[in-house]
Every structure is written in structure tokens, then in C-alpha cells.
Amino acid sequence: MVFHTQRRREQVSEHQDWFPVPESATNHTYCSAADYDRLYAESITDPDAFWAKQADRIDWFTPPTKIANWCYDPVSIKWYEDGVLNLCHNAVDRHVAAGRGDAVAFIFEPDDPAKDARHVSYAQLQGEVIRMANALKQLGVAKGDRVTIYMPMCAEGAVAMLACARIGAVHSVVFGGFSPEAIAGRIEDCASRFVICADSAVRGGKSVPLKANIDAALEKVGGVDAVLVVQHTGEAVAMHEGRDHWFHDMQVSGECPCEPMNSEDPLFILYTSGSTGKPKGVLHTVGGYSVWTAATFHYVFDYRPGEVFFCSADIGWVTGHSYVVYGPLQNGGTSLIFEGIPSYPDSGRFWDIIDRHQVNIFYTAPTALRALMRDGDGPVKARSRQSLRLLGTVGEPINPEAWRWYHATVGEGKLPIVDTWWQTETGGVMITTLPGAHGMKPGSAGRPFFGIRPQLVDAEGAVLADEQVGGATSGNLCITHSWPGQARTVYGDHDRFVQTYFSTYKGKYFTGDGCRRDEDGYWWITGRVDDVINVSGHRMGTAEVESALVLHDKVAEAAVVGFPHDIKGQGIYCYVTLNMGEEPSDELHAELRQQVRIEIGPIASPDHIHFTTALPKTRSGKIMRRILRKIAENDFAALGDTSTLADPSVVDALIEGRQNR
Ligand code: ATP
Ligand code: MG
């Protein structure tokens, strides 16, 4: 039976599927399979030579002579340490200087589809960034100061980031959906004395009072000297004399050179989404992050000048930092910034945007795809999507079912998909297929990016070699060697950095994720290690059980957690949301149990199936299993920090549902 379970499990996660590199991608790539093998080998055998060459992608005021200098015990990470550069120069100025000032840097698509989109050229962007950089200087911002940015998804949000990078201020972008409480905590944590915000934002037709939220946050936390307010919607807002300044009213000069930054000077702080606890202020530095985002964007998306790249992530998340702003701009690309949400005014909005702006590369999250799948193929099929060349996902393991839909329906079965595994802490993509080099397996992120050495270890830290489990093995995912885009510390708390990432397995970076590697050298993220369930001694990733549940036609989304069980040690508790128009029933309950038994085996039989209309998600759309675990355990008092939750009322409904069981 154990053998049978194992075999079934492999089927559900892999579906025995293999999608070869599509022809379109073979003819359009910087990196063929042979190139990948050669470059990867070079990056491992002589990392310094490899990363010295990659550093040539960008301009340096003083080129680095030292490349890597790191140690994981004790922890100290430096890249290009004697190099001097400025990220804003590389993202903006050098393109203008090279005569590409008329190229489009950003396409801004407003929330309201009836409103005109705005195209911002590199030359215009340079002008705006200089204006904002000078405004910040006038307000007293100096190199090294932390600046909190609380902006809508609009060009000015990116301008604010670039203006900080230009003058050497350290930005901390706080997602525009966060509450005053959450903003105050983040301002306090990094002792930020300056804030940039907009009057308000609109998302899905609803107004978000950004300035009023900042006012409320500043009632809770002291120390902020100045707030720079960008007029975005024109909504009336209160201005505090002496503290608040309208950006458009400030008289500033049109000159502002890019501050020469040492490679290891801090670039930004970004608080992780908090699906596993109190948010951490992850700190990235200038040189390594610049090279890493420039190189990963180039290879992973095979970007060609003139193409339109659309990443749907908010600039409040690392994906927005690396692949809405810094990766595309350093490559002289055109990046689309979308203010709204995928379901407004209807669930065809993404595809409308793709047609309207002839988007070539589309990068989104599994959570968005699952939500859109709920409405069926109609809204997708009603749009052409002919401009698309490449699709991507990030943020969570993608269920094979959602992958297939993305591939068959959105991509018409013709486009490559990159399933990119990475983290706030990694700065950019770490594991992915490269579109022209690797075939795809639905649910697998694929192969390590250049220089990345993943390793699987068991709970005691013993390295799991391929041979140990008949050519395929699973365990906890570590990275054994540093890479340029690695976070350097947790702001103000280096001990927490060391504790969180380098103490579980001494001498290695521990990702916190569980993972499996198959016989073809493909890596399969199985979810967070904390989410692994142990049923009668059988360990299984929540992603596997969830994938089995969503295979059912009526199921939209599933979240699975363990709960204490007298006999089995842990039982399996499944939260399930249904597709539009479907209702829970005893029959469906039985079908779902049966489905999991068939797909994985009787060992994975759900003990509880809890139908719900919504799941608790972080603002970036990730399911918060930590909270679901507590609810399953009937431990309602210990839900922990819920400040990063998108809709806290979901929790009350779930508790009520649990109590009525
Ligand atoms: P916190 O660390 O505060 O709990 P978080 O981990 O959700 O928040 P991020 O850094 O945005 O914050 O997310 C990184 C995590 O997202 C990864 O560790 C992994 O669990 C998951 N993830 C991201 N991309 C993928 C992917 N392509 N496949 C599987 N999992 C992914
Ligand atoms: Mg994390």
C-alpha cells in the first residue's frame, strides 16, 4: 500500500506530463538548452568570472575588482564590494544618454478602462525622477535616510522609488492596501522620517484613502518630519501645515546627478508579506541586486527591445520591485503598470489590457489565475491575446490544474510558461525553466538559475542525495552558495536574519520551503516546511492535497492544513471554495474525499472538508495557512498577526463555520 500511495502521489503532482520547448521559443531565445548547460557550468566552476561578466550588463562609475566575498558562518555577504554605481542611472539615465530617450519606459493603465492610458518615455521619466529627487532633497532627505513610499500602482510610484535610488535614500515601499496600523509599524521599524504618498487611489472602482491612512498612521507613530503628497486622483485631502507638501507645488531645479553609491550601500528595505509571522524588513544593497535583476529579467523573460512586459504584481511586493521596475528598466524595456484589479470591470480585464497594449510577456500569480478560472473560459476566449509570446507565474506553487488552464486556454497551448520560484530574500528568480532551453512540467518550477546551488536536506540537516530515494528525493530546500541578489540582513536585526535563514542548517541558506527533485533534475516546491502534514508517519505537502481537490470540476480553490488527531497524530483539514454557481452538498463532500483517495491514496483522506466562500489571504494573494491551522485546531485566541490580511472578516466567517461543525 505504501508503494501504491507513493506512485499515486507522483501522478497527482506530475501528471506524467512533459511539455517540450514550443517552437516559438526555440526560435526566439538568448539561451538554448546547450547555452544553459554551458553557462550554468561556468557559473558553478568559476562564479567570480561568471558574475564579473554579468556585471558588464550595467554601467559602473568605478568597476568592481572584487566579485564575491561571502560567508554563511558567521554570516557576511558582499558582492562587487569595491564597485561604485547608481541603480537609477542604469534604469533611466544611461538609456537617455544612448539616444533611447523616446522609447517607452512605462505604460500606465488606469483602473477605469474608459480613461486613457499614459505612455511615459525614458526622457520623460528622467525629468520626473529628477524633480522628485530634488523635492526629497529640499525636504531634507539625505543619503542613507529611509523613505516610506505608500503609493497606488501608477508611474509616480515607480518615480518615487527611482528618486530615492538616485539620491541614495533607502526606500521602504508599503503596499497601498495596508492599514494605518501596518504602515505605522513599518515606519517605526526602520525609523523612517519621510513619507511619499498620493492623495488617494482607485482599485476596482473603489477609492482608497492613501493620504488619510498616512495621517492616521502618523497619529500612532512619531518621528516623521515630512510627507510629500502626489496628486493622483485629485480627491480633497487634509494637509498638515509644515509637515505635508504637495509635490506639484514644489519649486525644484531640473538638475540632479545620480549619487555615486558603493555596491554594498543599502538600496531598499521591504517587509515580507507575513504569511508566517511578524513581517521582517529584508534589506537589499545596490550592486548585487542591480546585476541580479538585470540578468534574471534578460534570461527568464527573453526580453527583446520594443516588447511590452506586463507584470501584474503591485510595487509593494518584491515582484513589483524587481519585475515591474528595476529588471525591465535596466534592460531598457517597456513595463506596463496596471492600477486596478483582474476582476474589474469584469474578469476579462487582463486580456483586455493585453490586447489593448499588445502585451508580449505576461507575468502573474496562481491566485489570480485560480480566481479567473472560476469564471470559465468565456472571458478569455472573447479576447484575441495574439500578441502574447510568453507567460509566467510567481508567488505560490501553481496547481497543475491551474497551469494547464493557463497553458491551454490563455496560451492556446502554444506558449512557454515560466513558473518562477523565488522570495523577497532572494531579490529575483532562483528556480525556473528558461523559455527556450527547458521543457515544462506543470507544477514544477524547473531548473536552478545561473549560480544557484539548491540542496535538499532532511530535518536533521543530512544532505539528501539523488541516489537515496531511487533517483527522486524530497526534503527542505537550502541554497549552499550566495548569489548577487541575496538579502544582506533584516534591517536593524541582524540576529534575526542569522536565526531565520542560517541557523536551522549551519552554513546554508534555508528557504523555509519544502521541495522535491525528480530524476530529470526538475525542482518541485511542495509548500512551506511549516505546512507539511504528518499523517500516521506519512509526510505530505499541503500543495499535493490541494492539487487533488482542485482537480474536481466544481472546486475553485482549496487550502489544506493539519490538526491534532488522537490516532493519526495529525489529521487533514481542507478548506474548499467552489466555482461560481456551485453549492456544497453531502454528495460533493463524498466525491472530494474519494477524489483525494484516488489521486494520492487512502492515507491522504480528508478528515474534514469545510466549504467556505473565501479563504484568508495576504494582501499579495497568498493563503495564510497559519491562521487556517489555528482555526482547524479550535484555537481562536492565538491567530497572531493578522495585519497583512486582505479581508479580516473572512476569519470571523471561518471561525463561525468551525464552531458549527
Ligand atoms: P513571509 O516570509 O513573511 O511569510 P512570504 O514568504 O509569503 O512571506 P514572499 O517572499 O513574497 O513572502 O514569498 C516567497 C514564498 O512564496 C516562497 O518561499 C514560496 O513559499 C512561495 N513561492 C513563490 N514563488 C513560488 C513558485 N513559483 N512556486 C512555489 N512557491 C513559490
Ligand atoms: Mg517567506
Automatic annotation (TrEMBL):
Superkingdom of the organism of origin: Bacteria
Residue stretches making up the Acetyl-coenzyme A synthetase N-terminal domain: 36-91
Residue ranges annotated for the AMP-binding enzyme C-terminal domain, each copy included: 544-622
Reaction it catalyzes: acetate + ATP + CoA = acetyl-CoA + AMP + diphosphate
Key words of the record: Acetylation, ATP-binding, Ligase, Magnesium, Metal-binding, Nucleotide-binding
Swiss-Prot/TrEMBL GO biological process terms: acetyl-CoA biosynthetic process from acetate
Cofactor(s) of this protein: Mg(2+)
Keyword match Metal-binding: yes
Any single GO CC term annotated in Swiss-Prot or TrEMBL for this entry: cytosol
Residues that, per the record, bind Mg(2+): V550, H552, V555
Broad class of enzyme this protein falls into: ligase
Described purpose of this protein according to its UniProt entry: Catalyzes the conversion of acetate into acetyl-CoA (AcCoA), an essential intermediate at the junction of anabolic and catabolic pathways. AcsA undergoes a two-step reaction. In the first half reaction, AcsA combines acetate with ATP to form acetyl-adenylate (AcAMP) intermediate. In the second half reaction, it can then transfer the acetyl group from AcAMP to the sulfhydryl group of CoA, forming the product AcCoA.
Protein name (database record): Acetyl-coenzyme A synthetase
Gene: acs
